[in-house]
Write a structure and sequence with these properties.
Distance between the termini: 29 Å
CATH topology: Spore Coat Polysaccharide Biosynthesis Protein SpsA, Chain A
CATH class: Alpha Beta
Bound molecules: cytidine-5'-monophosphate
Mean pLDDT: 95
Number of strands: 11
Strand order of the largest sheet: 5-4-1-6-10-7-11
Helix content: 25-40%
Oligomer: single chain
Low-confidence stretches: none
CATH architecture: Alpha-Beta Complex
Strand content: 25-35%
Largest sheet: 7 strands, mixed
């Protein structure tokens, strides 16, 4: 069974403090986005890639794809929105009507493992929704606005959500439509399904699959690429 993948790259990347958003920053001599697309195309289960980019970066996307993107999988560039959730919804709207399973992945996670991507697709086909996540390694505290600890959350139950998050297309489309109608705003797609009581299965991820967010993360990414 094959799946399509939506790669969201329409963020502003303000935490990076650079003019270009992070998917377009060079890592190991190539735009970060190209590393992510190369990782995705390691899997023969991916049929189509929808690349969601800010309208003002569309030309840059096409330039980068022309220069570095000889993939055997078609890549379609569509416009994103103000929030990540808007970008995903616009990506979903661009899927082919025959598409049954869709993975949603952050462009800023270049160290995606083929087996984990494929396990998420298989899990979504079986259960409807699959969330790649890793167990929390640090103890996590809930902290009040006054800067004092409210509680310590038992670590055994805590997992850090990553992407890909993979779904039956009908299920995630409906969740996004309901969220739009109800004004529900979340930071990841699985949360929309949880909101309506849908089962979301965990697929154990990898700590390498981190989201590049800060300048330090870029240095770590450079080092990881060097050692392979
Ligand atoms: O901002 P954050 O790090 O959570 O973004 C995660 C991913 O979502 C990034 O790859 C970013 O480009 C994407 N994004 C998007 N549209 C937005 C905001 C974020 O495609 N409006």
């Amino acid at each position: 069974m094959q799946a399509d993948i939506i790669v969201v790259a329409a963020g502003k990347g303000e935490r990076m403090g650079r003019e270009l958003p992070k998917p377009f920053l060079p890592v190991g001599g190539l735009p970060l986005l190209i590393h992510t697309l190369r990782a995705i195309t390691q899997s023969s289960l991916i049929a189509n890639i929808i690349l969601v980019a800010a309208p003002e970066r569309e030309a840059l996307c096409h330039d980068i794809l022309r220069a570095h993107g000889r993939f055997h999988v078609p890549v379609t560039v569509v416009h994103g929105g103000a929030e990540r959730q808007d970008s995903v919804r616009l990506g979903l709207a661009a899927l082919d009507t025959t598409s049954e399973i869709v993975a949603i992945h952050d462009a800023a996670r270049p160290f995606l493992d083929r087996e984990i991507l494929e396990r998420s697709i298989e899990t979504a086909a079986l259960h409807g929704a699959a969330l790649v996540a890793v167990p929390a390694r640090d103890t996590i505290k809930r902290v009040g606005e006054d800067g004092t600890v409210v509680e310590t959350i038992p670590r055994q139950q805590l997992w850090l959500a990553q992407t890909p998050q993979t779904f039956r297309v009908a299920l995630i489309r409906e969740a996004h439509a309901r969220a739009l109608a109800g004004g529900v705003v979340v930071t990841d797609d699985a949360a929309l399904l949880e909101h309506w009581g849908q089962v979301v299965k965990i697929v154990p991820g990898s700590y390498r699959n981190f989201k590049i967010t800060t300048p330090e993360d870029l240095l770590v990414a450079e080092a990881l690429l060097r050692i392979g």
